[in-house]
Give the backbone structure.
Amino acid sequence: AGDLFDAVSTASALIMSLSRLGCFFAGCCHGRPAYGLSWAVVFSDPATASLYRGIPLHPTQLYSAGANLLLFLLLLFLFRRGTFRGALAGVYFLGYGLSRFVIEFYRGGMRPMAGPLSLNQVLCLGFAAGGAVFLLRRALSASPKGAHEP
């Protein structure tokens, strides 16, 4: 089961990176207004999914694509280095949860809130905590025979 979780997690990081590029080209999942930000993007096409047409925005889709690409490369590195089964899944959940938590501060549009955090941020903290617990439990129970072979 650990090998399957590791493979799916690694593929998910790459797929999420590519899908966020699709979001960028469609103008959805955009960031909040970012006047004066040198790398802000402006969606002006009338067909854009952006709520803020013509306004400079944080390119949160690109932040997310980059974070997921880095996570994918980290998972490949860890796989080639050799690690215990399930480690990649734990790293993915932890890394995705933390990166998405931070990116959510820059997201635009209306979002349900849970106190000072968005509901997505609360879920991301759960994702990260779940990944950390999973990683810790798997690390404590892993045997040398349960390791991935590079």
Remarks:
- Strands lie at 113-114, 117-118.
